[in-house]
Amino acid sequence: MTTQDRLIESTRTLLWERGYVGTSPKAIQQLAGVGQGSMYHHFTGKPDLALAAITRTAEERRAQAEAQLGGPGTAVERITAYLRREREVLRGCPVGRLTQDPDVMADPALRRPVEQMFAWLRERLAGILAEGLTAGELRPVLDPAATAATVVATLQGGYVLARAAAATGPFDQAIDGLLGLLTAAATSAPGSAA
Amino acid sequence: MTTQDRLIESTRTLLWERGYVGTSPKAIQQLAGVGQGSMYHHFTGKPDLALAAITRTAEERRAQAEAQLGGPGTAVERITAYLRREREVLRGCPVGRLTQDPDVMADPALRRPVEQMFAWLRERLAGILAEGLTAGELRPVLDPAATAATVVATLQGGYVLARAAAATGPFDQAIDGLLGLLTAAATSAPGSAA
User: In this protein, which residues make up the domain named HTH tetR-type (chains A, B) (predicted)?
Assistant: First the structure.
C-alpha cells in the first residue's frame, strides 16, 4: 500500500470505530505509521482525509451491490441475490452508519458520498424493478422508485433491528418479509401482466 | 415535575444530543438543576439514570405506535395510519438511534428496553397482519412475522435514507413503496382469499 492508501485505510478504521469526533490526525498517523509532515503532504487535514475515506467506503459498497445487481437473472432474482448476499449484519452498513455521525452529516462535503451512494442504489434498483414491470414479471401496480426505496430501507432498518436484538434473526426476517411481498406482487407467469 | 422526573428528562436529552459517552453525571445534574447528593439519592449512578431514560423513551414510542395500531379499521388501514403518522423524520427514531450507541449496545441492561420495544412492535404488527390474513384481506402467501419485521425495518431504514439525503423525500418513498407492496398483496375483495 502507498502512504496515501495507508492513511485512507487508517482513517476508515478510526471513523468506523470512534466516529468523526473521536478520529484525531495524531491517531490516523499512528495507525498508518506515517509522520505528520507526510500526512500533510498528501492531505490538507482531517476533513480531507475523512472525505477520501468515506468516498472509498461508499465506492466499495456500490461495487459490492453491483456484483449482484448486474448479475444474470430476472429482476426479482437479481434483487434476491443482492438481499441474500453474505453480510456482517451485526456490524451494520458502514455507509448507513455514517448517517448517525452528527459531524459527518453536518458537513455537506462529507455527507455527499453517503447521499450519492444511496441515490445510486435506489436508482439502480428502480431500473431493475422497471425492467421487471416491462417484462411482465411484476404486476404493474408497483412504483419502481418507491419500491426501490423500500428495498434499501428494509436492508438499513434490518441492521437496526439486528443490533437491537444482538442477533441476526430480525434482519433475516425483514428480508424474508420483503421477498414475500415482492413474490406476492409477481405475476404468476412472466409476460401475463395486463 | 418531580426531581426524579427532571433527572430522567435531562438524561434523555443528553443521551439524544451527545450519546452515552458524552453524558456525564455532572451535565445531568446541571441540566436538571439538581445537586449531586439529590441525584445519588434517587439513582445509583449514570447507568441507572440511563436505564430509566431509555425505558421511558421506549415506552413513549410504544404508546405512540399503539395509538394508531390499536385504532379502528382493517389491518392495512391501521398499519397505514401508523406508517403515515406525523414524524420528525430528519431527527430519526430515538429508540432506533440507540442501536448505534456502542455503550448502550454493549450493556445488556441498557439494550434490553430497546430490544423489547422492537420485539413488541414486531409482534403487534404480526398480530394485525395475521388478523388481515384470517379476514381474507391479505393473500395467504404472506408470513405475518416476516412481513412485520419488514414494516419496522422500512421505517427505521427510511430514517437512514432521509438523513443521508438531508430530506424527508426518501423516507416518504420507502413508506409509499411498502404500502404499494401491501396493496399488491391485498386480495381485491375482502373474504375472497383462497
Answer: 1-61
